[in-house]
Amino acid sequence: xxVHTKLYExxxxxxxxxxxxxxxxxxxKDDATAFNAQKRGSIRGKGEINCSISSKLFKELEAHGVKxxxxxxxxxxxxxxxxxxxxPLEVVVRNIAAGSLCQQTGLPLGTVxxxxxxxxxxxxxxxxxxxxxxxxxxxxxxxxxEQVNKITHLALQINxxxxxxxxxxxxxxxxxxxxxxxxxxxQLLLADEISPDTCRLWDISAENDPNRRVLDKDRFRRDLGxxxxxxxxxxxxxxxxxxxx
Length: 245
Ligand code: 5GP
Description:
Helix content is about 30%, strand content about 30%.
């Protein structure tokens, strides 16, 4: 493959074009940011760990009927992906109250939600990724009604699969963020990544300890230490669960 200049550099990944216009190469970085990039750092090995976890989860999801952008992983920190145009939406699914849901509603941390909550945020750094209403999202033409309905359905389907999968890893899936994109045939595909950067994951064996249970980016956000160890532990358990299947 010839060397191409990057198409896009985000906080956690660089996207390169390839010789095939239908295929991009995503290179996962060790860089870590939080609070709209006001906090910056690096987590050793994160690029490889997140790429490996995401690749395995995308493969599992594909096997369960969810169409994703994943093609294959030519190196531990690289993913070949279908070329998609990302919708400017962050789709968050929550099973347990944490993070901004607690801050904005006063719900106590750890409240188990009676039903999963699907929320849409505007992917816009300048505006700080604000929470959208369905009407605002449609008003701004960020997606069509059909796309919003399909994304909501897919997000709930993905949640059911991931909740069960992580349960087998002795991990509670608290919440997570998804991104979707459209390929050249305008097909909606799950894109971006699913990793400890984009999910809240609590270790069931330490569930009553609000610090020890954290196996995700909250360790970095809240300066809890042992960030790499937590990410490695998630990868180890994901590999074991995939091997058991
Ligand atoms: P919250 O809205 O509570 O901050 O985040 C909800 C969930 O979505 C968490 O699992 C969090 O990691 C994920 N999330 C929300 N926005 C972003 C984002 O801009 N980047 C990343 N990596 N994750 C996000």
